[in-house]
Specification:
The protein is mainly beta. The protein has strands at 23-29, 37-38, 46-55, 61-67, 70-71, 85-89, 92-101, 109-117. It has a five-stranded mixed β-sheet with strand order 2-8-7-4-5, with no helix packed on it. The protein is rod-shaped.
Length: 127
């Protein structure tokens, strides 16, 4: 430690700076908790659960669901949120979850998600 020319051990200024390494934000779909295969055509019980790692340890994550590049607002859960859980979703192949941190500084991680549904069944009854 440089004591800036001071004579005592506790006098002066330090020119040392300690910087903790910050790992990039990473994220993944939790397939055990998500519902990405709808059994009924046209239903809206899809659920996306995303987990995150990395970033700054003292800062919460912010998860934002987008569909077609726009924030998706037709949900039964808040968007964005700090839990990474989005419910009430219909089928679609253009969902993304953006993971960032409250104050920022780390590059946003984007996770792509597809929710599939069964094929529409049509029938005709003849007399």
């Amino acid at each position: 430690m440089d004591n800036g020319g001071g004579t005592g051990a506790c006098e002066g200024e330090s020119n040392e700076v300690h910087v903790a390494k910050v790992n990039p934000i990473d994220g993944a779909v939790d397939n055990d908790k998500s519902v990405t295969s709808l059994k009924c055509y046209g239903s809206s019980y899809g659920k996306i659960v995303v987990t995150a790692t990395g970033g700054k340890n003292d800062e919460p994550y912010v998860f934002t669901l987008k569909k077609g590049g726009h924030v998706f607002t037709s949900l039964s859960t808040p968007n964005p949120n700090a839990q990474g859980v989005f419910e009430g979703l219909v089928a679609g192949d253009d969902y993304t979850v953006e993971i960032s941190q409250a104050v920022g500084g780390c590059t946003t991680k984007v996770v792509q998600v597809q929710i599939k549904q069964e094929t529409r069944v049509q029938g005709r009854i003849q007399k």
